[in-house]
Amino acid sequence: MCTCGKTGPNRRRLLTGMAALAAFGRLRPAIAMPSGSGTLRQGHGEVLINGRPAPVGSAVAAGDTVAAGPGAQAVFTLGDDAFLLRSDGAVTVSDGPAGREVSLESGRVLSVFGPKQITLKTPHANVGIRGTAVYLESHSVSTNVCVCYGRAVMIPTGDPAGAEEVATRHHDAPRQIFPAGRRPVMEPYRVTNHADEELVMLEALLGRVPPFVAK
Q1: For the FecR protein domain, which residue ranges apply (predicted)?
Q2: Are strands 117-122 and 99-112 parallel, antiparallel or unpaired?
Q3: Integer Cα distance of 43 and 174 in angstroms
Q4: What angle do CA 82, 111, 13 make, to 5 degrees?
Q5: From first to last of its 215 residues, what are the pLDDT tens digits of the chain?
């Protein structure tokens, strides 16, 4: 394995993620944007905001629902958070007294967050986090969660007593969460369907670098 500074794995992740970002268009950090405003940064295929076709550059506001059709993909920022929504999915990001809430009824989304309280919701789980990165898959039979780095509390809606708190540095504790009646209701899973290069790209949109990338 190569350990040289120029071609080591962290360097390759950073360069690959930045190349992906360059392919999406001009980097414009969103750090100074109000928490309730954002932008659709990239879209492939059919991307909708609140049910209407949305070209790249469309405004995204707290409370909006962003959807990606079959074979589509959307990258958007909202305040100091960034999201990569995959095909056949829809996500709603809203703000309230308890903090920001991200609702994913179905589909797959990779998200990076600034330092604030976040609640992720699917039909099978609630995930409470504070300023971290999370990959979420919501299916009819289960929810898959990977806390890519940071701390989170994962609460199965079918068995809140089975909640688990995790602290991860690099995809250390992926979990699969099931509906009520299944035992165990939550179990270790595998890291799947998301990559470090995508996390680098999302964080770069906000002028940040993931903690697993060597400074």
Answers
A1: 64-151
A2: parallel
A3: 27
A4: 90
A5: 333 333 355 544 454 444 444 444 444 443 444 567 899 999 999 999 999 999 999 999 999 999 999 999 999 999 999 999 999 999 999 999 989 999 999 999 999 999 999 999 999 999 999 889 999 999 999 999 999 999 999 999 999 999 999 999 999 999 999 999 899 999 999 999 999 999 999 999 999 999 999 66
CATH architecture of 36-193: Sandwich (2.60)
DSSP code per residue over 38-55: EEEEEEES-EEETTEE--
At residue 155's C-alpha, the angle toward residues 197 and 200, to 5°, is 10
Question: Nearest CA to 76 among 100, 105, 50, 47?
Answer: 47
Amino acid identity for residue 130 in this structure: R
Domain residue spans of the chain: 36-193
Give dist(CA 128, CA 148) in Å, integer.
14
Tokens 């179905």 belong to 106
**CB neighbour class for 4 (10 Å; exposed up to 12, middle 13-18, buried from 19):** exposed
Predicted TM-score (pTM) of the model is 0.85
Cα–Cα distance, 111 to 94 (Å, whole number):
14
Count CA atoms closer than 13 A to 23's CA, side-chain side: 13
